[in-house]
Design a protein that fits this description.
Helices cover about 35% and strands about 15% of the residues. The chain has 11 helices and 14 strands. The radius of gyration is 19 Å and the shape is globular.
Length: about 350
């Protein structure tokens, strides 16, 4: 029993988060979203080096492939390893056979004396770290890399940095990939981005967005629940909605199931076709995925009404451009055992660095 579908697209990922699973709990408990960022994610970002970035992307891309996801839109940050980081991610994904659109998420939260600020004044000057991030985005795009211009979030950026990012994106005819009003700390994002946002922007989360903005909204139901930031009510937004994972793997069928359950809790009249349309909307950014062939071990894998309620579906084969890069559930270009082992080594290095 099996059925074939086109390739799946993860519209918002943080591939480096592949190393964070199993990480020892931080010494301080987090009582809010901003404390989660301070105690966990911003510490992880600052600890990353090139080897960690490579093997986290290798593992994330391999696991994406094994779930039938053939295309990833990645958002990356590593303030102590900026230069060349986007090429490292692209090279890793290419080795696996998965397509990636990546960007560096610029931010002014690390000032020029390497002090961390949870919130940045709109009137502040652009930091060296933000400038380096923009240079990395431009280097990658100008060399032919498939990407966007990344911005962490408005509340960690000066207006100077937001304007520079928007200008760079316009120069290369790409969108800006930015977290928008994920938590209440970024409640001013709509007002600050209103004059900048364009139709090709990716507005990630938009949980507390207080006004319409141009661009596509990327919904990350599981991450929003995990961080207790609230429900984004994507079905009520005028924007086209896409689905991402915010770094919690790249199993898009599972993500769609969670998104549907959350939608039903909000609107009991909603049906699975709404969320599966959100999945399909990502094909506008990765049209090549339409020609990818994914075989699942379930006869009705192409039916939203079936897949919304059927767990343990597995991708058994993936074909991209005539090449089978997944056979019998295993990648053909890379050794799964080696990828997991190397990623584990880098995860242990990361944990040790965080502990010190």
């Amino acid at each position: 029993m099996s059925a074939q579908t086109r390739g799946l697209v993860c519209a918002h990922h943080h591939l480096y988060s592949s190393l964070v699973r199993g990480m020892p709990a931080p010494k301080q408990k987090s009582r809010s979203f901003i404390e989660i960022l301070n105690n966990i994610w911003w510490r992880v970002d600052a600890a990353l080096d090139n080897e960690m970035i490579y093997w986290s992307a290798m593992l994330g891309a391999t696991e994406a492939l094994m779930s039938g996801t053939t295309c990833i839109i990645d958002h990356h940050e590593s303030p102590n390893c900026i230069e060349g980081s986007l090429s490292t991610i692209a090279d890793a994904c290419k080795s696996v056979g998965v397509r990636v659109n990546t960007c560096y998420g610029v931010s002014d939260r690390w000032d020029d004396s390497q002090q961390l600020h949870s919130k940045v004044s709109p009137l502040a000057k652009m930091t060296k770290a933000a400038s380096r991030g923009l240079v990395e985005c431009e280097r990658f795009l100008s060399s032919g890399g498939l990407g966007m211009v990344g911005v962490h979030a408005a509340f960690t950026c000066s207006d100077e940095t937001l304007n520079a990012a928007a200008g760079l994106a316009k120069k290369y005819s790409v969108g800006v990939h930015v977290h928008v009003a994920e938590g209440l700390d970024d409640i001013q994002a709509g007002a600050r981005l209103e004059s900048l946002a364009q139709d090709n922007w990716l507005l990630v989360h938009a949980v507390h967005l207080d006004r319409p903005l141009r661009g596509r909204v990327v919904h990350n139901a599981r991450s929003n629940m995990n961080n207790a930031v609230g429900y984004a009510k994507p079905s009520e937004k005028p924007n086209k909605i896409l689905l991402g994972t915010d770094g919690i793997g790249a199993d898009m069928i599972e993500e769609a199931r969670v998104a549907y359950a959350r939608l039903r809790e909000f609107d009991v009249q909603a049906d699975p076709t709404i969320v599966w349309q959100w999945l399909d909307n990502s094909l506008e950014l990765f049209p090549d995925a339409k020609n990818d062939v994914v075989t699942f071990n379930y006869d009705f894998a192409d039916s939203p009404w079936h897949t919304a309620f059927t767990t343990n579906m597995t991708a058994t084969e993936v074909e991209i451009a005539g090449e089978k890069i997944l056979v019998d559930g295993l990648p053909t270009r890379v050794d799964l055992i080696e990828v997991r082992a190397k990623a584990h080594e880098q995860a242990l290095r990361l944990y040790e660095r965080l502990n010190n």
